[in-house]
Write a sequence for this structure.
């Protein structure tokens, strides 16, 4: 199946302004709208179009239906110093998680470590957006979330367990931060949606169709189940992330969590943000030197056949951001069409960063 054209080129800042305006028209406060827009465009810049502006119509649909409350203000409901619980009150997941990250950084600076659980939240986009906030503030950070059912429990064939992604990030001295952001399925479900938008097949091993058979058709895959990474190991990690993000936080879990493409159902997502202040363990300078040494050792490893360079986690995203900020973004035609439709629906065609 031939891939569709992905032109014109779109400038990142203009795309952020457009997405923020759409969010404002949908009822979000200006700062929250910019945050939510920035998380999408950053994902595109990092090379993760699965979590980029492709998702803007989904989020706006949930705001319009009030499954997500545009002007909700997350509330701190439990505070024991280094451990806090934040109730998102059905706010955008980006808003609740940014607040949790700010609290975690602040309390980690006071106590050395902090954990902030978030309940009654929603999908927040890329987890690394928030762990990088903490890394840039001098912390090592961990963030987990649960998600709507996408894969079966090991040995099953119906959707019961979410992709339940998680992220770690740490500053790396003079280098871009080290950051890992992964789902527990073999691929994020957004990659299957992106394949559907681009009109391309998916590799075998990503998903099963509704009859439990392996498929390369993204449409059939979305009607079936996504498979866990590393077999039973991915399933086990996903379940533990749901325990941490959903059960422990006091939020929904398992089949009770709804995703961003389910327009009218409250999300019920839970998150867990943990921050460790590096200064509680060693000086920032010592940590930076040791991180640079660690990365240098990784990169000095002899190369396997077919490889030109070794990358550390987060390096590819950092390089992609630098490159795409200069060249602009090429978006799938379906995404461009969806954005043009949003611009018309929300009366802001003049802000559309490309010719419709």
């Amino acid at each position: 199946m031939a891939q569709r054209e992905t032109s014109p080129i779109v400038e990142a800042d203009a795309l952020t302004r457009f997405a923020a305006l759409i969010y404002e028209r949908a009822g979000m406060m200006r700062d929250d709208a910019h945050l939510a827009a920035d998380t999408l465009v950053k994902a595109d810049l990092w090379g993760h179009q699965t979590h980029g502006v492709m998702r803007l119509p989904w989020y706006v649909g949930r705001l319009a239906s009030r499954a997500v409350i545009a002007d909700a203000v997350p509330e701190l409901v439990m505070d024991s110093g280094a451990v806090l619980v934040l109730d998102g009150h059905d706010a955008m997941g980006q808003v609740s998680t940014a607040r949790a990250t700010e609290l975690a950084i602040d309390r980690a600076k006071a106590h050395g470590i902090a954990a902030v659980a978030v309940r009654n939240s929603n999908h927040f986009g890329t987890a690394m957006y928030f762990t990088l906030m903490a890394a840039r503030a001098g912390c090592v950070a961990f963030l987990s979330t649960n998600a709507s059912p996408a894969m079966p429990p090991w040995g099953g064939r119906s959707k019961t367990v979410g992709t339940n992604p998680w992220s770690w990030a740490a500053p790396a001295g003079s280098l871009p931060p080290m950051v890992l952001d992964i789902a527990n399925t073999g691929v994020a479900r957004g990659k299957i949606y992106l394949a559907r938008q681009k009109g391309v097949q998916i590799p075998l091993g990503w998903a099963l169709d509704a009859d439990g058979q392996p498929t390369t058709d993204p449409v059939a895959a979305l009607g079936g189940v996504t498979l866990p990474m590393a077999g039973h190991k991915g399933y086990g990690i996903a379940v533990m992330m749901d325990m941490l993000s959903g059960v422990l936080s006091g939020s929904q879990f398992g089949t009770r969590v709804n995703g961003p493409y389910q327009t009218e159902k409250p999300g019920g997502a839970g998150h867990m943000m943990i921050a460790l202040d590096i200064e509680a363990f060693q000086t920032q300078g010592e940590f930076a030197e040791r991180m640079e040494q660690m990365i240098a050792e990784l990169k000095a490893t002899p190369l396997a056949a077919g490889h030109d360079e070794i990358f550390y986690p987060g390096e590819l995203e950092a390089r992609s951001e630098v490159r795409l900020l200069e060249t602009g973004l090429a978006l799938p035609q379906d995404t461009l069409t969806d954005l043009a439709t949003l611009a018309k629906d929300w009366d802001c065609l003049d802000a559309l960063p490309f010719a419709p």
Q: What stands out?
A: Residues 163 and 188 are 7 Å apart (CA to CA). Confidence is low (pLDDT under 50) at residues 1-6.
